[in-house]
Design a protein that fits this description.
It contains 22 helices and no strands. It is mostly helical.
């Protein structure tokens, strides 16, 4: 009976995805059918959905989403772009480097790849094309560099992973993301340098470094200090630091930069609630779907299957990366975190991988998925902003996948890249 129930659960879920049923409804419907087959009261599904949302950790997510909206509307993103221009604009392919560094800084405050592309892309892509850069290359750099926001803290997806993984320390996850995030940014810059050399893209103006540390840029980056410094030092919880950072970004946008007015607040809150409703709906549906998989022993079956392929740690980790990369091409990041974490975490733990390290590996894997067709939301957003076809931008993105995959393999097989900083700061 369990075998038939597993087939009903998984095949129905895949079928509904293929016919483009929203993923939330796909999980609810497939879970309901499996429960009806096993004569489990459907009320159990409702209870599991409510139980999944009854988590203090989830309170941080709306504040991080709101913070990203406030930053984009309040003018913080343009200040970060100016700071990046002063730092790296002078090198060959300077504006491509500026794009990557600005995304690194923006991601270090908003924690959202989509917010990064949406707010910085409207400035960066026209700026690069006006300077003679190919529009497809400009869009590709904007899209791929936005993935840094998923692993450079704060990241609401890391908060979500911590909850699903069973209480992994959010503070450790945040600390673990710094070195891989910076390594990813540097790798993308190196790749952009060689592409710029080949295509004869020029250098930017050499600006004095003192212009990088203006009052505006310092105030913009202080939001990151509030979140990361507060959590790492134990002054705030993750939720408290995100709430304080929201108030700070609102104050800066309203009264210091004055690029936001009180009339903008309802629209900002509306966009936040819309995004939050989608995320919480997914979390609730995934709670019931995950409970059903656990009830049917799917995680253990998956673990046994992967171990039957090979007992070599390195082969299994490579296989897991391939699975996540392929799934990332067809599903969005949030549902994959909710669905795949309970399945794959026991496998990597059996090889001694720390859940914190696996969280960063998963974030980068699924971040690459945001840049790949056919379901790459960051790719879609960048193409919409640039007015370009997905096919042409995807072709320009191909060389930039190389540094991303290299960094992925490095953080998979070298634990020190992710674990050294959290072990040092949060013993």
């Amino acid at each position: 009976m369990n075998g038939i129930a597993i087939a009903i659960l998984l095949l129905t879920f895949v079928f509904l995805l293929v016919i483009k049923c929203p993923i939330t409804f796909s999980m609810v419907i497939s879970t309901s059918l499996a429960m009806l087959y096993l004569d489990i009261p459907v009320m159990t599904m409702v209870q599991q959905m409510c139980k999944q949302l009854n988590s203090f950790t989830l309170l941080a997510i709306p504040f991080f989403i709101l913070m990203g909206e406030l930053m984009a509307q309040g003018g913080i993103s343009s200040r970060l772009l100016k700071f990046a221009d002063v730092c790296v604009g002078r090198f060959t392919g300077g504006l491509a480097h500026v794009n990557v560094l600005a995304s690194m800084l923006f991601g270090g405050i908003s924690g959202s790849a989509i917010a990064d592309v949406s707010s910085l892309g409207v400035i960066e892509i026209p700026m690069m094309t006006d300077a003679g850069y190919d529009v497809d290359f400009s869009t590709a750099v904007t899209v791929t560099s936005a993935c840094q926001g998923l692993i450079i803290p704060p990241s609401h997806n890391m908060v979500l992973y911590a909850m699903v993984a069973g209480g992994v320390s959010v503070g450790k996850l945040f600390c673990a993301g710094y070195v891989p995030g910076i390594l990813l940014g540097v790798s993308l810059m190196i790749c952009c340098y060689f592409i710029s050399k080949k295509k004869n893209y020029g250098k930017g103006k050499k600006l004095p470094l003192k212009e990088a540390l203006t009052k505006d840029t310092v105030l913009a980056m202080l939001a990151m200090v509030i979140v990361i410094g507060g959590v790492s030092a134990g002054v705030f919880t993750t939720t408290e630091s995100a709430a304080i950072a929201c108030l700070y970004c609102a104050f800066i946008g309203l009264f210091v930069y004055r690029q936001m007015t009180l009339k903008d607040i309802p629209a900002i809150l509306g966009r936040t609630v819309k995004t939050l409703a989608m995320i919480y709906g997914l979390i609730a549906a995934a709670g019931a779907f995950g409970w059903m998989m656990t009830y049917l022993n799917v995680p253990q079956i998956a673990t046994n299957f992967l171990l039957s392929v090979s007992t070599n740690k390195y082969v299994i980790l490579l296989l897991i990366n391939i699975i996540l990369l392929v799934l990332g091409c067809f599903m969005d990041l949030t549902p994959l975190v909710l669905i795949m974490t309970p399945i794959l975490l026991p496998v990597v733990k059996s090889f001694g991988m720390d859940p914190v390290q696996f969280g960063v590996v998963m974030m980068l894997n699924l971040g690459i998925g945001l840049c790949t067709p056919p379901v790459g939301t960051a790719l879609f957003t960048g193409c919409a902003i640039a007015g370009r076809k997905i096919e042409s931008v995807s072709k320009a993105t191909l060389p930039l996948y190389v540094p991303m995959l290299v960094v992925l393999l490095l953080i998979t097989y070298i634990p020190g890249l992710t674990m050294a900083l959290p072990n040092l700061l949060m013993k």
